[in-house]
Amino acid sequence: xxxxxxxxxxxxxxxxxxxxxxxxxxxxxxxxxxxxxxxxxxxxxxxxxxxxxxxxxxxxxxxxxxxxxxxxxxxxxxxxxxxxxxxxxxxxxxxxxxxxxxxxxxxxxxxxxxxxxxxxxxxxxxxxxxxxxxxxxxxxxxxxxxxxxxxxxxxxxxxxxxxxxxxxxxxxxxxxxxxxxxxxxxxxxxxxxxxxxxxxxxxxxxxxxxxxxxxxxxxxxxxxxxxxxxxxxxxxxxxxxxxxxxxxxxxxxxxxxxxxxxxxxxxxxxxxxxxxxxxxxxx
Length: 283
Description:
Number of strands: 0
Shape: globular
């Protein structure tokens, strides 16, 4: 058996899984997007762009998704980076494992239960009630973009922490010591050494969180109360309630295209940033 044949055999299971679970479903959805809604729901195969012409009717869902997903990703990054930096660089090695477990602990509980907890905290008997006690009245937190953003940050923070932690944990501490010995201030050491070397972790964390947020359904449905909804909520409505599979497929295809364009631009920026960093280090 040749090496090439062996490689193909090793790749065959993953390739078959990828084909069955991703390529074929996406192809079916793409074909459905050119169809029409059947009288009793579902889809009638055709070749029309009518469904794509109706996309502006779901503009609010796209706007919320394309606004809150990047903001949620950036907010999670701003909170996760100091935490990951502390765990990787500053934390006592004896306590590091325990602290890492504490970061994972929220994942041991269903996102549904955690969302219900935030419904109570952000509802009338939670934080707004405490604000009423100190004289700040009429504050409404639940069923707002703020509530959805809080749920997003809380739910996806661990996914941002761990890639950054891995990058920082691999950081050669001798570089930090050398920078200090050469008289560089701590903030210069961070900007010129720590931050550039942690870019791969930042890129991975942002990618994980952003892609998952683009298809988020549960958090907007529970904390948004039907007033702040994502494309995921629109898809559930179109496929399961309206049973307009053709229109839902057009929305799904558009979401995939938007994600591909966004991720491609993001990866190109990361690649150029990494290339420029390597050029500077060589010089």
